[in-house]
Amino acid sequence: MFDLDDFQPLALKDKPIFDEHYSKFPPNHSENAFTTLVSWNHYVQSYYLVERGNLIIMTKPKGQARLRPPSGNRNPDILKRTVKIAEESDTDYLLVLINNRERDWISKLYPEMQFTQHRDYFDYVYLASDLAELKGKKYLKIRSKLNRFNKHYGYKIEPVCESNIAELKEFLQRWCLWKDCESDPMLDNERIAVLYTIKHCFDLGLEGIALRIDDEIEAVSVFEFMSGEMAVIHFEKAMPDFEGLYQIINKEVAKILAENHRFINRQSDLGIDGLRTAKMRYHPHHMIEVQHMAKETIEGLDERPEVY
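RESULT FIELD:
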């Protein structure tokens, strides 16, 4: 059986391994997407192991091993070994990022275990047609912003990562100056992750659009196919000088994705109040719920993993 030492540090060269596995067992949550894992490697190193057709992902925030449920045909022996490794390691959690189907299966093998929901990491999933069309009263305020924007500005859309990589980097620098990324560790690390995806967008198989106003890139969105009928938005940024710009690029992306995808996964809100409000304003079709298992069951336990 495997041990912690058998896990390999994840790198860009490992994408074919993930592509092959995910072609049979697509990821359910955006945190398990290869692009997410590799682009945030600078912040939390990811590791992986393939064991008898199962893919197991591990991260090490603050030096603690955080293991996720095995992905693949359900094998009780592999699951039990994964939990055993966590029990023997210096970590507070047996498993993290457990979706509801995994929870139901794990509960049958470990009926004594308790699960704690991690709302900050619930993925928001929308009907692509809802975001593309914005019909009905529930989208009235968003449509009003779009109308005001269109009265004052004209814009053009173009694909990212073709002839505009240098301009995309310059746009991200301007965006970070506005957001003062250097004063916020999370924003600064997000900047690094975004620059990584731009640099390697062809290697990662990403798509996206840039929006120009007066020949200047003012908004960018990058996305990819995730699983089944779902695409995932990896990041979306817009400058603050144009009211309604975020709503415009959100709609333009949805129009593109609605042609071939039923759902759009816009990832989690990380517990950020303003981000949660903005995501709820678009009325998600459903949430991808996740939970974790603490190493020891403690009455009234409130602590949650800060990073997966």
